[in-house]
Amino acid sequence: MPASRTGGRAVMADADTAALDARLGYSKVDQQPDVATVLAGMDATAAWPSVRRLRAWERARLAPRPGDEVLDVGCGLGDVAATLAANVAPGGRVVGIDASTSMLEVARSRVADAGVSVDFHTGDAADLGEPDAAFDICRSERTLQWLEEPGRAVNEMVRVLRPGGRLCITDTDWLTLTIDIPDDDAVAAFREAIPRLRGTPASAGSKLLNLCRDAGITGLEATAETHVWTQWSPDTEATPSGVFPIPPIVHQMVEARALDAATGSRFLEQLVHAGRTGRVFMSVGMFAVAGRRPG
Ligand SMILES: C[S@@+](CC[C@H](N)C(=O)[O-])C[C@H]1O[C@@H](n2cnc3c(N)ncnc32)[C@H](O)[C@@H]1O
Q1: Which of 54, 166, 265, 294 has minimal CB crowding within 10 Å?
Q2: Which residue puts its alpha carbon closest to atom 4 of ligand 1?
Q3: Residue from 26, 118, 170 whose mutation best tests the ligand 1 pocket (most atoms within 8 A of CB)
Q4: What pLDDT is attached to residue 10?
């Protein structure tokens, strides 16, 4: 039995989103067979109350003002960049860098609709291609978890900040994932299979503070938020809001030998049962750090 079928019924995720590849994740968005669904995931997570609270925390620390020059690394659909562009006008500028041309295509059209100006271009967080000390503010949200070496991206962000420039980095830590099903060992095995499947650390969130300390950032502050899911209807919804579809992920984990098939089936059986009986409880932690480049 494929790991993505349980209880004799195919769950919704099979039909609609099996094509999504958790191995590519957000590292290689443009190579996903169903890019539109990946982009829709960004709008879903932007609506999470936990993400909204983290963005408010960030905003209070970055304090954008007219004339500021701002860089958003891994800007995705550009919603935060668009807000920042309005904040730094007149006289400021916002640059958004992302690895995905599909993300940037949507971002360009949204900022045009919003009547603001952002300079979006494709690039790599690990090698920004921007001059030294060019920005007053640098931010990155939920992007470092998709990099093989998050520390390189932090060093790059510090390099392009002016002395005294403000930095804020936010990321999820998938090792904090909790799921209330009877088999805690299966949950632990699933959690540990996430970085093995992706090939990226996936636990970037809890490493942010020390990465910033190592990069010489001063005045550091840190905070955390937890996102909680309490429902998922596996027969009518492809996935809990904002998450890559779990049944195909389990299937891909088993295929990649990151998770054994029996554990994968047990995990999925119990999670789908929780969904069908109104007993879902899942959570994941996100962390943010803010500080200044010395000088
Ligand atoms: C989970 S999304 C977050 C997007 C946006 N920051 C937000 O919070 O809505 C991760 C983003 O990182 C981008 N990304 C992944 N690897 C990257 C890299 N090496 N350099 C720049 N961007 C990257 C993806 O294309 C995607 O837009």
Answers
A1: 294
A2: 76
A3: 26
A4: 47
